[in-house]
Amino acid sequence: MTEDYNTVKMCAADERQEQTTKAVQVTVFLIVFLLGVIGNVLVIATFAQYRRLRLRCMTDVFLFYLGLSDLLLLLTLPLQTGEIIIGSWTFGDGLCKINRGMYAINTYGGLLLLACISIDRYLLVVWAKAAQALRPSMLLYSKLSALAVALTSVFLSLPELISASVDHLRCENIGSEGKTYLIKTWARVAKIMGFCVAFVAMLVCYSTIGYVLMQGRGKCWRRQRTLRLIAALVVLFLLFQLPYTVVLSLRLLMDTDSVTCDQWVKIHVAEDVTLSLAYVRCCLNPLLYALVGIRFRNDVMRLLHDAGCMCACLGHLTPAPDNGSSVTPSSPAPTVLMPDVYAPPRTSAAKEPSLSKKFIF
Predict the structure, then answer these.
(1) Quick one: residue 182, left, alpha or beta (phi over 0 = left, psi -120 to 50 = alpha)?
(2) In order of start, what are the domains of the chain with their CATH numbers?
(3) Rg of the chain in Å (alpha carbons)
(4) What is the reported pLDDT for 74?
(5) Best label site of 150, 241, 323, 329, fewest CB within 10 Å?
């Protein structure tokens, strides 16, 4: 089955529909770019300023690279927005390849890192003793995992990177008719698989964490807060990423030899709109995966204060002291009653009641 390019070129949305789609895309792109860049820069800057890039645990490593991946993905938005507003690609063939490559690599990287974060938290909560035993090598494993994510992302994006070029004033993946279809099919399948990997990892790991939390006796506001956070992570991921994946799946199943102009226009508009929604995840990630941590929020306030921000609210927040624990400023919100698997052992004189055990998320 090959794509009917003559039909595709003749099909086009009416002017009103096209203008509406452009307005939605440009508005979403601008908002996501501003909020996402601010959030992810704060994540990266906090690590750089107060951790000196000496990441202490797997969560630190994955959150740092997730922030970097999301930031690089968001940096592709200005050129995409310019193409939408102008109506054509005027930035040259080189920038076309760079922009397409950055988009593909960091899309796959972001999804795979979300899976890594889910597995990391699963190990910390469900296999706490094993995590304690592996403590000396956890950082090495996390860095190797991040390297594997990067290499996998580059491999998956190679067809798009190589074939990206300016054609008919558009930055697209081009080649012979059959080759172009295969490249686009590869890209859609890779994005769908990336979503499936991240979603399955989140569903299995977070549901298991939730089950462990539910086994705790009595009520605890931290436990309830954590369950709500887990639900928010999964729901928001589905809310912003699932629609785009569904549309990509429909594109794969569509019989392009018999598709009508009306059907093609609808699926094309749906792909543009859902792609815009998928970008929202990049500006929510810092909020959901990093900024919910109390110590991390304090470090952000400290960073803003050191930068000369004279916000009135800063005076009410005192940065938490760094006690050497791996529940770092980047560690997310608390989750489960369990000892800090990375914290240095306490002396017998400093034992605490069982109810004061720390939560980790």
Answers:
(1) alpha
(2) 5-341+353-360 (1.20.1070.10)
(3) 23
(4) 93
(5) 323
pLDDT at 252: 86
Residue for token digits 């970097």? 68
pTM here is 0.78
Tens of pLDDT, residue by residue over 104-144, are 999 999 999 999 989 888 888 888 777 777 766 777 888 88
Using 50 as the pLDDT threshold, list the residues of the chain that sit under it.
1-9, 217-218, 312, 314-360
Q: How many residues does the chain have?
A: 361
Which residues, 6+ apart, have CB-to-CB distance to 218 below 8 Å?
none
Task: Extract the tokens encoding 227.
Answer: 């369950």
